[in-house]
Design goal:
There is one protein chain. The chain has 87 residues and is of the alpha+beta class. Helices cover 47% and strands 26% of the residues. The chain contains four helices and three strands; from the N terminus they run ββαβααα. It has a three-stranded antiparallel sheet with strand order 2-1-3. It starts with a strand and ends with a helix.
Length: 87
């Protein structure tokens, strides 16, 4: 499986990524092994699973490049974002 995921850090910043191993990738983010997310504690707040790698890459690109896609997703997962910020 391939995953598109959304992370949220303690400052309320989000990160959208793609991985074939979601648990390993989340650990890499939190251990400072990913340059763009280094120095923060990240919580997984959302993910989508795909059987085809190409589908996951297309969805990740859509979420990163389309304001409308990001806005729709934020509306959909708004309660999860709020809960993560409270923790």
């Amino acid at each position: 499986m391939y995953y598109v995921y959304v992370l949220l850090n303690e400052e309320g910043q989000s990160y959208i990524g793609y991985s074939a191993d979601l648990k390993e990738r989340l650990a890499a983010h939190n251990q400072g092994e990913v340059t763009s997310t280094r120095g923060h504690k990240w919580d997984l707040i959302y993910y989508e699973a795909y059987k085809a790698e190409k589908d996951a890459r297309v969805r990740e690109k859509q979420l990163k490049n389309s304001g409308q896609a990001r806005r729709w997703l934020k509306e959909r997962i708004g309660n999860s974002i709020a809960l993560s910020r409270e923790s």
